[in-house]
Structure formats: structure tokens, C-alpha cells
Design goal:
Order of helices and strands: EEEEEEEEHEEEEEEEEE
CATH topology: Jelly Rolls
Number of strands: 17
Radius of gyration: 18 Å
Helix content: under 10%
Length: 275
């Protein structure tokens, strides 16, 4: 898309852990400053503090952490969440000081995220916070039902209800209509691979979870968990626009819910194949 809003990679006053607030992982630039100044009060929205320094990359993968940190200007150390956004491909697209790489907006196709919890299972994550992987467009498009072009390939959380036997969900937006939230129970050993097939507007989307670490080239024949949206939900399947891909690790609402210890998810692989 060439008519998408141009946003600064490093807003005035932002924390910039890397050049132009970008991390390089699996052939893509990932933007760490997405939550900045949404509410007009710095790294703060959804009733909690966000810290772009909690995303790092090493030989193990892309680390998303949730822990207590200080943000300049904040009165005290408090629990901080992290969200990152796919900005654009790395190949032929340099990231220079003051000149961020060109943006791209992956749309119809197949998405894969392989992730692991180094401290337990994703059930443990669900008890303490939310791990999310999803498409999202910041600016609303009032011409379609799913105004932010949001497809949640996974939201791993109990949303504060620890008695809930389910621990994650696939979600279409808006989530309020019956059936748009499809609750599931992950029974992993700490490693999962998520795959989403979004082939066209107004056509069913397939959400899959595999236990273990895989690529698009070696997926098992059958997923461990799967959901195909119903034809009656086609109105919630958006066309392509200015959406990109997000991943986050954040405190469950209500804001009074806090984890008992630091939380971490390591993204070991991301793949996108256009339709």
C-alpha cells in the first residue's frame, strides 16, 4: 500500500534501544516504539506501562519480556509490557540513523509464528498475562466491518479468570458477535507453532496450532488445534489495507492483575508467504 499514513520510527522523546527503534529478526525489521504516546502520556495505554527495551534479539530468537522497569518520567518502577510491529523486509532496505527502512504491509497469505516459553508452558503465560500474535491496522477503515483489519491468530490468556479451563483463543474483530471468539485449550510443553491462512476478503480463515517448533516446509500433516471460520462470519474477514503484523506480551486486564514473576516468550521463527 502506498497511501498508508507515514509514522515516525522514533517519535519525539521516545526511547530508542536501536537505530530508528528497529530490531532485525528473521528477514524483517520489527518496530519497538509502536505504543508510544497513543494516550498522550508516553508509553502508556490499556491501563499499563509499555517499555520498548523489553524486546531484544539474540541467537535464540526474538525475546519479548514482561517485567518491572522504570520509564523516564514515570513516578516509580512498575510492570511493563511489550509490543512489536513488523515494519518491512530487511533485504535491500537499509536502516540508517534518521532514515528508517521503507515499510511494507503483508496481506493475504500464510503466516507462521514459532514460539516458546523458556520458563514453562503457554498455560503458565495464560495464568499471568497475554501473549498475542495478530494483524492490525492502526487507523480505522469505516468502509469495512473489521475496521482495524485485525485477525488474532492467537491470544493466550485467561483474562484474569484462573478457573477457566480454556487458556487461549482465536478471534475475529469485532469480538462481540457470537462465535467471533473461539476459545481453545493449549496443552503444549512450552513450544508451539502458530499458522494462519488468510487467503482473501470475505472468505474463511484457518487458524492452526502445532505443538513443537516447525517451519512452513515441515509442518505435521495435522495440526493439534484448528479452527476454520464459518461462511456466516465472512463479513468479518477484511480485505488488504494498511494492516501489518504485531506480537505482544502484556498484562491481563483488569489492570489490578499482575504476574507473580517476570514473563517471557521467545519467538524462534516468523514466516509469511503471500497468497
Amino acid at each position: 500500500m502506498n497511501n498508508c499514513p507515514d509514522r515516525p520510527a522514533v517519535p519525539a522523546g521516545a526511547l530508542a534501544p536501536t537505530t530508528n527503534a528497529m530490531l532485525e529478526f528473521d528477514g524483517y525489521w520489527w518496530w519497538t516504539n509502536y505504543p508510544f504516546n497513543i494516550s498522550g502520556s508516553g508509553y502508556w495505554f490499556n491501563g499499563q506501562q509499555w517499555d520498548p527495551r523489553l524486546a531484544t534479539v539474540d541467537g535464540e530468537g526474538l525475546h519479548l519480556k514482561m517485567q518491572q522497569t522504570f520509564i523516564p518520567g514515570a513516578p516509580q518502577k512498575q510492570w511493563s509490557s511489550i509490543e512489536i510491529v513488523l515494519w518491512g523486509e530487511v533485504a535491500g532496505n537499509p536502516n540508517n540513523p534518521g532514515t528508517p527502512p521503507a515499510r511494507s504491509y503483508p496481506g493475504f497469505g500464510t503466516y507462521l509464528v514459532a514460539a516458546k516459553n523458556p520458563n514453562g508452558t503457554f498455560n503458565d503465560i495464560a495464568n499471568n498475562c497475554c501473549f498475542g500474535a495478530f494483524t492490525y491496522q492502526f487507523d480505522e477503515d469505516g468502509s469495512i466491518t473489521n475496521k482495524h483489519r485485525e485477525l488474532d491468530m492467537l491470544e493466550c490468556s485467561r483474562w484474569g479468570n484462573l478457573s477457566d479451563p480454556t487458556n487461549a483463543q482465536f478471534t475475529l474483530q469485532p469480538w462481540q458477535p457470537s462465535g467471533n471468539v473461539h476459545r481453545i485449550t493449549l496443552k503444549d510443553n512450552g513450544e508451539i507453532t502458530l499458522v494462519m491462512h488468510w487467503k482473501a476478503a470475505n472468505e474463511p480463515v484457518i487458524f492452526d496450532v502445532y505443538y513443537g517448533q516447525y517451519s512452513l516446509n515441515n509442518l505435521p500433516a495435522t495440526p493439534d488445534v484448528t479452527w476454520t471460520t464459518a461462511p456466516s462470519q465472512n463479513t468479518y474477514i477484511p480485505n488488504e489495507g494498511c494492516q501489518t503484523f504485531h506480537m505482544n506480551l502484556w498484562r491481563q486486564p483488569p489492570s489490578s492483575v499482575t504476574p507473580g514473576a517476570d514473563q517471557e516468550v521467545i519467538i524462534t521463527s516468523f514466516e509469511f508467504q503471500s497468497a
